[in-house]
Amino acid sequence: MIDLRSDTVTRPTDAMRRVIADAEVGDDVYHDDPTVLALEARVAEVLGKDDAMFTPTGTMANQTALRAHTSPGDVVLASKDAHIDLHELGAANAISGLTIQQLDGEAGTFTADQVRSAVPEIPASMPASLFQPVTLVAAENTHNAAGGTVWPLARLTNVTETARGLGLATHLDGARLWNATAATGVSEAEYSAGFDTVSVCFSKGLGAPMGSALAGSKAIVDRARRFKQMFGGGFRQAGMMAAGALYAVEHHRERLADDHANARRLAVGLAEQPGVEVDLDTVATNMVYFRVTAMSAAKFEAAWLDNGVAALALTHDTIRAVTNLHVTTDDIDAAIKAAATVLG
Ligand SMILES: Cc1ncc(COP(=O)(O)O)c(C=O)c1O
């Protein structure tokens, strides 16, 4: 089976399993697991921040950041269909009492002007206490729901500088920041520079079995550690998982370019099929979102699976296929051939 459902479905390679088995461990809650500490130091260095905190999931890295930056009742500005809103199941509302306001822009981005307009100008005649405070701006790079799209660095910098000028904190959901770097050559640290906190995942394109991290200043990461513990994220002998993550950071970043080339090859091959529409401009990294017009997406998904290819029907007409470290160029050619068979 060629599994294109997600880049999270990968299993650890043999080399990764060996470092996991051999990992030196301590107790994450006592902050003395040497492999966790080594991972945190390395991630902070790669992202150009003072400190980092290892978490079991990207959701926990994002939600501890949101909680650390805000107070209940605050408004967070985020992109349209941001993961922190759409796929974290109302955690920001349920756990931290936040309202997320989506800013609809191009390919999962938004502009500094949109940030400015979303912050209420309080008339001199009105009490400030009548306005819900906007306190945080959150961006997502790459942007999952927009198709794995990459923020142009200039737009991102404009947004973070504007946010800072307005006194707002900034968070980057960088679950796939590694992919943005592989696609553009802009380093992870350059993308992170304007942000107070940045989350990254090791369990997506990098192929580790689990784990994410939140990086930032020592003060904000210390505050987030309190919420990691509160949310149930103190995961004891986590060094085993940190070893897999560290291996992924050192050995699997460069190969993401292969996933991107495979995604483009798939997108181009699918675009040639009658009954399929692909916006090639949105295929920037390892994701291919395409529309099926010949039949329902659910029917296409089931028939593609019968022909050996797993993908996800996200809506009545949209399918998502994601390349990852188990998917070869031959698999891509086989997937295109299977699509042709399905489409008849
Ligand atoms: C953009 C983005 N952020 C955060 C997450 C959350 O990661 P996790 O599944 O580890 O909680 C995901 C997961 O797919 C994601 O795509």
Structure described in brief:
By secondary structure, the protein is of the alpha/beta class.
Report how far the terminal alpha carbons are from each other: 20 Å
Low-confidence parts, pLDDT < 50 over ≥5 residues? none
Secondary structure tally, helices = 14
What is the CATH superfamily classification of the largest domain? Answer: Type I PLP-dependent aspartate aminotransferase-like (Major domain)
CATH topology of the largest domain: Aspartate Aminotransferase, domain 2
Structural class: alpha/beta
Q: Share of helix among residues?
A: 40-55%
* Cα shape: globular
Name of the CATH class of the largest domain = Alpha Beta
Give the quaternary arrangement of the chains: single chain
> How many E-type strands?
13
- Nearest-angstrom radius of gyration? 21 Å
Major beta-sheet overview: 7 strands, mixed
Compressed to H and E, one letter per element, the order equals EHHEHEHHEHEHEHHEEHHHEEHEEEH
Q: Which architecture of the largest domain per CATH?
A: 3-Layer(aba) Sandwich
Overall mean pLDDT score?
97
Query: Beta-sheet strand percentage?
Result: 15-25%
Count of the domains: 2
Key traits:
344 residues, alpha/beta, Aspartate Aminotransferase, domain 2, Aspartate Aminotransferase, domain 1, 2 domains, 4-stranded antiparallel beta sheet, 42% helix
Describe the structure.
- It is a single chain.
- With 344 residues, the chain is of the alpha/beta class.
- It has 2 domains: 14-251, Type I PLP-dependent aspartate aminotransferase-like (Major domain) (Aspartate Aminotransferase, domain 2, 3-Layer(aba) Sandwich), CATH 3.40.640.10; 255-343, Aspartate Aminotransferase, domain 1.
- It has 14 helices and 13 strands.
- The strands form 3 sheets. The protein has a 7-stranded mixed beta sheet, sandwiched between helices. A 4-stranded antiparallel beta sheet has the order 9-10-13-12. Strands 1-11 form a two-stranded parallel sheet.
- The longest helix has 16 residues, at 256-271.
- The mean pLDDT is 97.
- Pyridoxal-5'-phosphate binds at residues 57-59, 62, 83, 140, 144, 173, 175, 201, 203, 212.
- Pyridoxal-5'-phosphate binds next to helix 3.
